[in-house]
Amino acid sequence: LWHFQNGGLDGMKDHNPKLVVVMIGTNNRGEPEKKGKDTAYGVLALLKEIHAKLPESKILLMPIFPRGDTPQDKGRVRNEAINKILKTYVDNKTVNWLDISDVFLDENGILDRSLMPDGLHPNLEGYWVWAKAMESTIAKFLGDEPKVVEKPLPKPKPVPQPERLGKWDIPNPDFLKGDPLPEIAKKGWNLGSIGARGWMYNIRMHTTYARQIYITEVAAGSPSAGLLQKGDVVLGVAGRLFKQDPRFELGKALTSAETTDGNLSLFRSRDGVMEEITLKLPVLGSYSSTAPYDCRKSEAILTKTAEALALRMQQDRYEKTNAIPRSLNALGLLATGEKKYHPLLKREAEWAAAYDNMGFATWYFGYITTFLSEYILATGDDSVLPGLRRMALLAAKGQSAVGTWGHKFADAEGRLPGYGMMNSPGAVLSLGMVLAREAGVDDPEVAEAIARSHTFFQFYIDKGAIPYGDHKPNTFGHEDNGKNGMVAVLFDQLGNKKGARFFTRMSTASHYGERDQGHTGNFFNLTWAMPGVSRGGPNATGAWMQEFGSWYFDLARTWDWRFPHQGPAQNKKDSYAKWDATGIYLIAYALPRKAIRLTGKRPSIIDPLDMEMARSIVADGRGVLGHEPYTAYDDLSPDKLLERLINWSPVVRERAAVVIGKKKNVTVEQLIGLLDSPSLESKLGACEALGRYGKAAATAVPKLRRLLKSETMWLRIHAAKALAGIGEPAMEVVPDLLRMLAKGPTADDPRAMEQRFIASVLFSKRGGLLSHSLEGVDSKLLLEAIRAGLRNQDGRTRGAFGPVYERLSLEELRPILPAIHQAIIQKAPSGVMFDGQIQTAGLALYSKYRISEGIELIADYIVTQKKHSSQTHTPKLLEMLKPYGAHAQRVIPQLENAVDYFESREEDFPKWASEVKAKAVRKAIAEIKARTDKPKLLKLNLQPGKE
Questions:
Q1: What pTM was estimated for this model as a whole?
Q2: Which of 545, 529, 542 lies closest to 612 in space, CA to CA?
């Protein structure tokens, strides 16, 4: 104002400008003693001064631009209050109004930092956006045609480099400096509907360091044809250089372009020359706030994609499609509800009903039975019911004794071969049987298998993600290879409201860095995303789509209406690289039609989420990048960490507890106070954090000890884990824990899951309270606990007691020798990967004390041991025969039979590894034959089957 009053406008008088543009006032908000009306009054004084000095000029008044990241920013709120006053000065004669604030914000009102890097001042690109937004209005005042505002090409910066590189990581290549495409870059990405594929830098399962996309493939006839070619480098999109994950920015730009005019601009570098090009994409409209529900874009994509898929399915080579994507594609077409596809689907149903390949049958049967069941229910065609019944019965009979499946069906004893339990095929197989029962498979064996599976999965409700196998709940992320989505649908179909509600929320909180990865690939993570989220209703799907699905789905869709599997952020191709993922997306887009059970033909048993809750749950999953979930909360204040420590999500609670434990920025007293809260989540979160304070949390021991008596099993377990974390000051609770361990299965805990956790709390080599010493421990309580633990269904839990054998004398162990013997001869029904630990420990004990029964048991176990790594374990087992001297000669026939078995009869095991075992046994036989010593043996004379 002073400047204008003292000659600042004098130079303009001679030019007699037609228009003066005014945007001023943001700096005044830095003076807190001044109120908004003071700033507005100052602007009014400026306007009066301008009009007095330039009476012929029109004034174009602009509001103070938004500042700060969010609509709630105090500076922005104050500016908006000032702007309301400024607008009252407009008379549309001398003073006119132009508000272009939206060009600096996204659809949620978040400030675009690529235009205002410091949250206040526009950069070069920001000024260009400002000028472009004003041009048409200014042209009207000047009475001429709008001029093309030439946008200056931005100058690319050097690509960012990770702070550290792991063994298999590579530096970020800068293609503008001539760096070649890395040799390990075997995997590319579909780049949406532009018709091109490209590679971008990735590290530790994320692409946030990438700033360039190297074009690896361009489809003829696509929007990119003639504009992009192999070797081009894309540096930015929609008028901006990439500032963060290019997949996110390109995906968002694709969505925006398909919403408006179909024009997608890219910064392309070719032969060192950078220019901006524009691709023409189809206009599909915008995603609705509840997409795919009430969403014209989703409907358009569904229609076009279904038509294209149906044409591909009629090609001869389609019969070679893997059974899982083939079943999902059929489900996708079925989910459209369009009868014109029924003839094609009947052909697919007949193929499915005849499927009899037993290799990895558990994986394929789950998806095939799900499709067949849905087909029968949707069409009424029960001609394929016999095939469905055959597979459902095979699955029921092949279920393990604890209600699960693995890579293959269980053996005659109900134990799973290979890796043991795997919940990814098991959860889908369970769902397939539930739907098969609804479709007409009413056999009792199927119903019993469903009940066992239901019991198994129920344990994980409110505790964490469904794990890989028979393991603890996974709290690494809100999803684990799609299994939470699987069981959300499963529980919904079974009428388990509590389970459906929890796993729907877990599914909804999983996106971006979590959803984008998975063991051997993320195919199943994407397959079960929307089926799981959709149980929460249109607001849940809408919030999830807005956060992740919209841009990810648009990036995945090709120009010719296919959805090839994208895979996780890694350089090598994953296990599903050649799979067609179209069915996954068809199922998602077809949700509003509610044509099959998977897409909601029967309404969900849980109440739909309102939009506020849906967005809150989505927000709970933010901040995770690849394999780095525990850094998401590093910068949060103690108060914010405490908020998350009492969150509904066990994943959020653990992430907060990890940071609190690392920084120790919350007092032990605060955490102890949470133990008195009526909220279960508060108590669980406090336990999580207290266990990470070690001895410093000793004052929490009394309250934690009282929680061992809680009626809630999961709280008892968390209290026990916290006590183990505290360590030596908590030793007084050992008798309580031993009694808990001895309790075994109960009606509320039929699989003795509590026993598993308490065994770890006491005996784990990594921090178990009794891992270093048994001094002062009540021997009677100890032996009762071990006896009970050796009967646990889980092989790993049984294995926890093996080290105890070494720390007790034979006389001390004598009361439980029958239980030890039983644990050797009777394998655990689950946890096969770790079952050998307790058997080996028992045999080593027998060998140490030359217990006679051990000779035959060792010889037998050499053949019956778990095959995995048995070529390494066999020589160790043979060493156990040496203390028996010549007494071991009585099992030479058994050992010779073992050699014959390894050399000519062992199946499903590498030939070279079998030969290693045979060679070791032959050598041992020769050594045993040469022995003449006969040491004194101890004989137990145990009655078979009794402890």
A1: 0.87
A2: 542
